[in-house]
Amino acid sequence: MKISSAEFVKSAFERSHWPVESMSEIAFLGRSNVGKSSLINSLLGRKGLARTSNTPGRTQSINFFKINGSFLFADLPGYGFAKVSKTMRAGWGKMAEEYLFEREELVLCIQLVDARHPPSKLDIQLNEWLRHHDKPFIVVATKSDKLSANDLAKNLKEIRRVLPAAKILPHSAAKHKGNDDVWAAILAAVEK
Ligand code: GTP
Ligand code: MG
Description:
Blueprint: E1 6-12, E2 24-29, H1 36-44, E3 62-67, E4 71-75, H2 86-102, E5 106-114, H3 121-132, E6 137-142, H4 149-162, E7 168-170, H5 179-191
Parallel strand pairs: 2-4, 2-5, 5-6, 6-7
Antiparallel strand pairs: 1-3, 3-4
This protein binds guanosine-5'-triphosphate and magnesium ion.
The site of guanosine-5'-triphosphate has 24 residues, from helix 1.
């Protein structure tokens, strides 16, 4: 995928902040620290465009990026970080659900799970929600570089069993591996 431009558009803390461009949009969803921002940077070949951090739960807004002037990425806040307050956790659910429900431009959800671990309860809940509401989605298993080929294959099988999805793609932002397959899914959704 040739990226001629990739720019940060804005951070949205509420619905009235959502961009009004009406371009196709891809959402990145997953627990705190799973690697959403890193995946975005890896796909775009831009190191610090989406902010990454070692402190989970840092991103509390939906961050929008415009790619090649023609479609948007939405980096959603991570869920399931135990240390944030209950109100904040409820806030996540409300903001994410409102977005997923109402955003007409949404053409693909990318659900991220950590390739090293079995999906969590919240991962399973999100997956059920996406299927229940007929949202187009794929699953990306992040941090694949931290596993041997054998363990990765084993874990992908388990992820596939627990999270039914049309596509489950391994990815490593550290090694920039798996970008082509994720791009193929994104472009298929954008061009539909
Ligand atoms: P929040 O914004 O807090 O929800 O986190 P996030 O899902 O955006 O995660 P982020 O991209 O900030 O990555 C979290 C940590 O995991 C960072 O320290 C990254 O460097 C690391 N990380 C992300 N992807 C990979 C990967 O593919 N391989 C390795 N080894 N580390 C990764
Ligand atoms: Mg992030």
